[in-house]
Amino acid sequence: MPATKPKTRAGRPLKPLITREAAVAAAVGLIDRDGLEALSVQAVARTMKVSAPSLYYHFKDKDELLQLVALELLRQVGEGTSPHAAWEDRVIALSLATRRVILRHANAAPLMLRFFPRRLMLSAYERTLTDCPFAPGHHMVVLEAIEKLVYGASLFAAAAATNHTSAIPAFDVARYPLLARAIESGPHGDENLFEETLRSLIDGFRARYGTI
After folding, report:
1. 107 and 197 within one domain
2. What is the pTM of this model?
3. Angle, CA 189 vertex, CA 183 and CA 191 arms, to 5°
4. 9 - beta bridge partners?
5. Torsion angle (degrees, nearest 10) of CA 27, 28, 30, 32
6. Which among 71, 81, 198, 82 is positioned nearest to 146, based on CA atoms?
7. 190: which residues sit within 8 A by CB, 6+ positions away?
8. Residue range of the domain that includes 49
9. Cα distance between residue 118 and residue 204, in whole Å
10. First to last CA, the chain
11. Are residues 97 and 35 both part of a single domain?
12. Is 123 left (phi over 0), alpha (psi -120 to 50) or beta?
């Protein structure tokens, strides 16, 4: 069956051949497949089978495209999280979602730091503090600790994934018996370890600050 051509009006497609959303999706796919160094406007254009000048109509330069890729990762973090859950459940769910997205797009993870959308995060900070169980004098410590733990741990894991290395290298158990015992008896699985670390941090807030 012959392929159908896009419907046109006065010689122009009714649906644009290029959109910013499609270009960002193509950029994310390219980075996932070939790495961050492979990304260029020309490479995205080839992936989309369009001309590079037509993409420059939508993006003034490569940095703007990279910034939108970082925003796309942030958008994916918000998918599937419930804004109506209890405070701790919401923080844990959002933190796990952040880690999963960063690891799913490990090659693009550095963009989350380079183009961290601090201004767009303001509403997320505000929502987190709306029902935060600790006194306002402790709120900045809570935000700072959770954010740095989540992004630090996730980006560290993403770097290990892109370099195909383990967070803890193989070692001589006889020489490091305490470390071997800690690994064996602790939470099994990187995500379980991450979640338990996060819950321990929140427990620490309660022990130090109490609740309101």
Report:
1. yes
2. 0.85
3. 125
4. 12
5. 160
6. 198
7. 157, 167
8. 1-59
9. 26
10. 68
11. no
12. alpha
Note the pLDDT tens digit of each residue in 98-131: 999 999 999 999 998 888 877 878 988 999 999 9
Beta strands in 5-159 (DSSP E): 8-9, 12-13
Pair 88, 54 in one domain: no
Q: What DSSP designation does 5 have? A: P
Distance between CA atoms of residues 148 and 71, nearest Å: 18
DSSP-derived 3-state class of residue 125: helix
Residue 147 tokens, joined: 């954010």
Structure tokens belonging to residue 117: 């959308």
Q: Residues 193-201: contacts with CB within 8 Å, 24+ apart?
A: 194/95, 194/96, 194/99, 194/153, 194/157, 195/92, 195/95, 195/96, 197/149, 197/153, 198/91, 198/92, 198/95, 198/146, 198/149, 198/150, 199/88, 199/92, 201/145, 201/146, 201/149
pLDDT tens by residue, 29-54: 999 999 999 999 899 999 999 988 88
Q: How far apart are CA 130 and CA 146, in angstroms?
A: 16
Q: Total structural domains in the chain?
A: 2
Dmax over Cα atoms in the chain, in whole Å? Answer: 78
CATH classification at residue 146 = 1.10.357
